[in-house]
Design a protein that fits this description.
single chain; alpha/beta; six-stranded parallel beta sheet; 14 helices
Length: 427
């Protein structure tokens, strides 16, 4: 039996990254919240008011006066509602890695009590909450699902670096393992979401809704990437084509480019994994993934051809890659597509410098073995790849970017940061 209301819920948020911290701080403005993360360094930073993801400001952390931080699982013992916001990555074989999710479930299971509710926000395939996570909760706690404790699913919709679409401004899908719990979860989120909520009829529907959101975006980007490849062969400016087509009211405004981040390049593999488990082999979804995964190689092949036509040497060439984050104006390095370009370039025995004023150098080194330069050398590069549309790059202007190049060099602008007349190549 449910023994709490949204007003009396003592909340624990498990995982304080890009998703968990904004959620914990929003709830923490009005009610008791324990923010838990297994990284003690992350907890120490948050206690000083520092968020290295740049998603929550120091003032916002101060405003969350009911929020406390801990890396000690015992501090979760008094909580009654647990919200799980840990990563759900893929492994080297592009299969779902539920390890962080299951370990979080084990941590909760050790303090789970009668009447408690566990809500998952991490992206999963349909069925994962009740088929994978709940059994862990039952095994560790010794309690019975939907008798002693309950579950819900409310998929995250955080867009890293986006200051216009913040957590309270994005409609929240909610669900629960029983009708009573579904109402509880919906009212809980409604207390902080100004944009409103949508109560799905089941946990599985909510899980499926989340996983197709980014699958749809992935396929749309794949289509535009393929069109860019075709138009390049036809010697037609892709941007000009998209601008012309965009004058029709229902044309979707997607642009070509690298696909990375914590969602779009990952979520489709969760859906295809579940589909294959039922005996169905997805065709379109996996085709889109293959095309988007191959864009790094395509970019480098175009760069090599352009350098060859310009009689610029490849062996021993120095190339500057501007941008490492997976998207503009944020420090998020997760699954960044820029790495595929860097790795491909190194196969040509060239020296690659990476410049990104947004990313933390230690994070880049530990995650990818990349050591970004803090100040690109003037007159130092045979080619410059503008891989991310950071505001700082736009403010530099084309003349200062060109100043990084040797007397004879070329610029490949992947994100249309500059005019097509001012660069040598663009997607």
């Amino acid at each position: 039996m449910l023994r709490q209301t949204p007003d009396t819920a003592k909340i624990a948020v498990i995982g304080l990254g890009y998703v968990g911290l904004p959620l914990a701080s929003e709830f923490g403005k009005t009610q008791s919240v324990t923010g838990f993360d297994i990284n003690p360094e992350r907890i120490a930073q948050l206690k000083t008011g520092t968020d290295t993801t740049l998603e929550v400001s120091e003032d916002e952390l101060i405003a969350a006066r009911h929020l406390t931080f801990t890396s000690d699982p015992q501090d979760l013992a008094d909580c009654k509602t647990f919200i799980v916001t840990v990563p759900t990555p893929i492994d080297g074989y592009k299969q779902p890695d539920l390890g962080p999710l299951l370990r979080a479930s084990e941590t909760i299971g050790k303090v789970l009590k009668t009447g408690d509710v566990v809500i998952y926000e991490s992206t999963v395939y349909p069925g994962a909450t009740e088929e994978d996570c709940v059994p862990v909760l039952e095994r560790v706690s010794g309690l019975t699902f939907n008798e002693d404790f309950f579950a819900g699913y409310s998929p995250e919709r955080i867009n890293p670096g986006d200051k216009n679409h913040r957590l309270p401004d994005i409609c929240k899908v909610t669900s629960g393992s029983t009708p009573e719990v579904a109402d509880f979860v919906d009212r809980l989120y409604a207390s902080i979401i100004k944009a409103g909520t949508h109560k799905a009829p089941s946990v599985r529907v909510a899980e499926a809704a989340k996983v197709i959101e980014n699958t749809q975006r992935d396929l749309n980007i794949a289509l535009i990437n393929e069109l860019a490849i075709i138009f390049n062969r036809l010697d037609i400016d892709t941007k000009a084509v998209l601008e012309a087509a965009g004058t029709k009211w229902n044309f979707l405004p997607f642009r070509p480019g690298l696909v990375g981040g914590h969602c779009i390049g990952v979520d489709p593999y969760y859906l295809t994994h579940k589909a294959q488990a039922t005996g169905y082999h997805p065709e379109i979804i996996l085709a889109g993934r293959r095309l988007n995964d191959g864009m790094g190689s395509y970019v480098v092949s175009q760069l090599v051809k352009a350098m060859t036509r310009k009689s610029l040497p490849m062996t021993g060439a120095r190339i500057l890659v501007m941008g490492l984050a997976f998207k503009e104006n944020c420090p998020d390095l997760r699954n960044t597509g820029v790495v595929s370009i860097i790795e491909e370039l190194k196969d040509y025995n060239v020296d690659v410098d990476v410049y990104d004023p947004w990313v933390d150098g230690d994070d880049a080194a530990s995650e990818y073995g990349i050591h970004p330069v803090s100040d690109p050398k003037p007159d130092g590069y045979d080619a410059i790849v503008v891989a991310v549309a950071h505001q700082q790059f736009k403010e530099l202007g084309i003349e200062k970017v060109r100043a990084f190049g040797k007397e004879d060099h070329l610029i490949y602008d992947l994100k249309n940061v500059f005019s097509g007349d001012d660069v040598d190549l663009r997607l």
